[in-house]
Specification:
The chain is of the alpha/beta class. Helices cover about 40% and strands about 20% of the residues.
């Protein structure tokens, strides 16, 4: 699909000049900082060198004092505690984190992950019955529960207290829990709102440690779980998330827990250092590695079998056990790939062969045979192909359940909220949501959602945008430039890897097609001194004919390192190519 290039506005020139002088960096790098809101040397120091000391006081979060008091009471009185969480990566990593921490303080503890198919998302009647029947006096719910008003009432009637730790948008009424921890509460003044569900869990144990004189040093071992959740749940990597991700990635790269090490083994990423037992990698693992290699494997258990397996993996205390669980989870991931590829192909054909769906401003489709565990992945793929707000539905018992994904200019949570009278349940955020409804309401929902999309996307071209940081001459790309650029990491939403354009390059003579329609580029500026620069453009081999004919073209790219036969060089990872601009 053709993409529209949008170049960001340049930062304040005075700020750029000051940063360039004080940091001894070039104007291009100083501009990147200014665009990210960095305006002076102290802010640049915090950006490049995040400090755990700069994490916010967890007691700034509404109800944190109540949550800690209740946990202390449960521990003092020997109550049984149940750690409850969603079945995706964020939920299972959050459960693993809180469970491991509290297990050091009590043996009267267990965890519970609802079944995606029999119970659905969030706090369930079955889960509450389990807690009551097994004598759990306190349930700590992670990555879910913010809209579980009726479920918490049911639990209370059965003598079970709840602490809710969630990061999704609240509804009009909060659950009547002992404590509701959610920075998105309208009455919560916590300074940072974009924590993951596991991040909320980390703030909970940080608060407990702070009150009970447990050294913060003892909490660092959990940061690999936090960074996996940050990456997999696609939350902003700004503020506290940047600090947590920075240190979590260090831990993943040097000494990940056995469960994460096992997942990396099955992703063919690990090697063992025989001298000290620490792991090392042929390259430094990034947020993208967690998003594409680690997260999907952990997620696969909840999609195909049970999310409980993911928690067992993450709390495993030795590599042998972790590898046994990891092998099973890797097989789930293979099955998941087959299911989502088939469903995606069927969905694309369904849309392509339906004139109404092709012309619509939204995509809302249903197939009762699609696997519930992959409809979110299918929705994401359809959004990439057709670039519209998308909801994919399948049958789940007596209900139709859906997974929603959105585009830049459309708040899908708000749109779904406008259809709430047709729904049984929904939750999520601006770009992703889940929902369920009765089959007889599906057609009415589809019609109303399309009306909302048509109205809210009026005047907006449904063409994906590539937001580019700046124009960059090729001669500015050298080892010192890249060494500083690397320090902008970890990259993710809110701090994406810098994207540049260079205009008017031409083939230097060595460009060719490699693999399955990939372009291996060798380009130069025709009017600028300097040797050729190499690049890779995946799935863009169709441009080769015009490149060979000598037409000048513009590149949109990230700068990265490429290792080949032990030699590391800089190359352009080309995201798009345009001719005649």
């Amino acid at each position: 699909m053709e993409k529209r290039w949008i170049i960001k506005e340049r930062g304040d020139e005075t700020v750029i000049g000051q940063l360039a002088r004080e940091l001894n960096i070039d104007q291009h790098l100083a501009n990147l900082l200014a665009q990210r809101g960095v305006t002076n040397f102290p802010e640049a120091k915090s950006f490049f060198r995040p400090r755990l000391e700069d994490l916010h006081d967890p007691f700034l979060m509404k109800d944190m004092d109540k949550a800690i008091d209740r946990i202390e009471s449960a521990l003092k009185n020997g109550e049984k505690i149940l750690v409850y969480g969603d079945y995706d990566v964020d939920g299972t990593s959050a459960v693993a984190l809180v469970y491991l921490f509290l297990r050091k303080l009590t043996d009267k503890i267990d965890f519970y992950i609802p079944d995606r198919y029999n119970e659905g998302y969030g706090i369930s009647s079955k889960g509450i019955k389990f807690a009551a029947d097994e004598g759990f006096g306190l349930v700590i719910a992670l990555d879910c529960g913010i809209k579980a008003v009726e479920m918490v009432k049911q639990a209370k009637a059965n003598g079970v207290d709840f602490i809710i730790c969630d990061h999704h948008r609240p509804g009009a009424e909060l659950p009547d829990a002992v404590a509701v921890l959610d920075p998105k509460r309208s009455d919560c003044s916590y300074p940072y709102q974009e924590l993951s569900g596991c991040g909320i869990g980390f703030k909970l144990i940080q608060a407990f440690a702070q009150k009970n004189d447990i050294p913060f040093e003892e909490l660092k071992e959990y940061l690999d779980l936090v960074v996996v959740s940050i990456a997999s749940d696609i939350v902003d990597i700004t503020g506290e998330n940047r600090i947590l991700a920075y240190y979590g990635l260090k831990l993943v790269n040097i000494r990940p827990r056995p469960g994460i090490e096992a997942v990396l083994k099955y992703a063919n990423l690990t090697k063992k250092d025989e001298d000290d037992g620490n792991l090392f990698f042929s390259r430094e693992l990034s947020i993208s590695d967690l998003v594409f290699l680690v997260g999907p494997r952990i997620n696969a258990a909840g999609r195909i079998e049970s999310g409980r397996n993911s928690v067992e993996l993450l709390i495993a205390d030795n590599f042998k056990l972790a590898r046994e669980i990891g092998k099973q989870i890797d097989s789930y991931n293979t099955e998941r790939k087959t299911l989502d590829a088939l469903a995606t192909q069927q969905a694309i054909e369904m849309i392509s062969n339906n004139a109404t769906l092709k012309q619509a401003r939204s995509t809302v489709i249903f197939n009762p045979d699609w696997h519930k565990g992959v409809i979110g992945i299918v929705a994401s793929r359809l959004t990439e192909v057709f670039y519209r707000p998308t909801i994919v539905f399948t049958q789940a018992g007596e209900f139709v359940t859906g997974s929603a994904r959105s585009i830049k200019d459309f708040d899908i949570y708000d749109a779904i909220d406008s259809c709430s009278d047709l729904l049984e349940h929904f939750g999520g955020h601006k770009f992703a949501a889940g929902l369920s409804l009765r089959p007889e309401n599906l057609e009415a929902f589809q019609k109303r959602f399309e009306e909302i999309a048509t109205e809210r996307l009026k005047g907006i071209e449904l063409i994906p945008e590539i937001e580019i940081d700046a124009e960059l001459p090729l001669f500015s790309i050298h080892s010192r430039f890249f060494n500083i650029l690397k320090q902008f990491a970890p990259f993710g939403p809110g701090n994406l890897a810098p994207l540049f354009i260079t205009k008017g390059v031409v083939n230097a003579g060595g460009s060719r097609i490699v693999g399955k329609n990939h372009l291996k580029l060798c380009v130069v500026h025709p009017d600028v001194h300097g040797g050729p620069f190499s690049g890779i453009a995946f799935q863009q081999g169709d441009h080769m004919i015009r490149i060979e004919q000598g037409f000048p073209f513009d590149l949109c790219y990230n700068v990265e390192e490429n290792e080949w036969n032990g030699t590391v060089t800089l190359q352009l990872n080309v995201k798009d190519i345009k001719f005649g601009i």
